[in-house]
Design goal:
Layout lengths: L1 H17 L4 E8 L12 H8 L18 E2 L3 E6 L3 E6 L4 E5 L4 E3 L5 E3 L1 H21 L6 E8 L4 E2 L21 E2 L3 E3 L5 H15 L17
Parallel strand pairs: 7-9
Antiparallel strand pairs: 1-5, 1-8, 2-3, 3-4, 4-5, 6-7, 8-10, 8-11
Helix pairs in contact: 2-3, 3-4
């Protein structure tokens, strides 16, 4: 656990140092970190990263339109001014998105890109499930989600919200960093995504995140 906490703290520090604008960070990390469980020469892994299965075409997904390249830490896909997807040699998978996280509206307010945040998180965990299946990782996984640089951003009210109770709740802090959660596996990635996303929506006064059914399946 000390090794895990030290690694995650290092990642937070590195990400914060590189930040210049709003960003969504979603990650999955094996509980029992070892030095190297990922072979960056593995052609199947490279294909999974470059062409992830179970993704919605032309939406907010993991299809970066480029090929994985070796990096200091493992394999990375990068698109300038958009984001990065990086698989570390120790099994840590990290998505860093700059695009579509906040939107300036005509009413003069800044809103979170709610659909983008939901779909990126679902897509990320679906990809993580396939990667961990391939490398035969059966241990629990730590999941985390952070929205960086979103001070004064809002979440839009749903159209069915009673106008009498409508209100705008702007986020008061620089970041919204959720406490990580632990899942036994990512066999049900949509449900895992919902657990994290519900906390984001609850931070803005909603009961739960939209676009999921009663079983926790993503329903766009």
């Amino acid at each position: 656990m000390e090794r895990l906490e030290h690694f995650l703290d290092q990642r937070k520090t590195k990400i914060r140092k590189d930040l210049q604008n709003s960003r969504l960070i979603v990650s999955a990390t094996p509980v029992f970190l070892t030095q190297e469980i990922v072979d960056i020469q593995d052609s199947v892994l490279r294909e999974l990263l470059g062409n992830p299965p179970n993704q919605r075409p032309h939406r907010w997904n993991m299809q970066f339109g480029t090929v994985p390249m070796p990096s200091l830490y493992g394999l990375i896909l990068q698109v300038p001014d958009f984001g990065e997807l990086e698989l570390f040699r120790n099994g840590h998978l990290e998505l860093r998105i700059r695009n579509s996280i906040t939107v300036d509206a005509k009413d003069g307010l800044t809103y979170l890109g709610d659909r983008a945040i939901i779909e990126y998180t679902v897509s990320m965990f679906r990809l993580a499930r396939e990667i961990y299946k391939h490398i035969q990782l059966s241990e629990p996984v730590i999941l985390s989600l952070t929205l960086h640089n979103i001070k004064n951003a809002n979440l839009k009210r749903r159209p069915d919200t009673n106008p009498r109770f409508d209100r705008i709740f702007a986020w008061f802090d620089l970041d919204l960093a959720l406490d990580p959660i632990t899942v036994d596996s990512l066999e049900h990635p949509d449900n895992a995504a919902k657990r994290l996303l519900d906390r984001v929506w609850q931070a803005f006064g909603f009961e739960q995140a939209p676009l999921f059914d009663q079983e926790g399946n993503f329903t766009p």
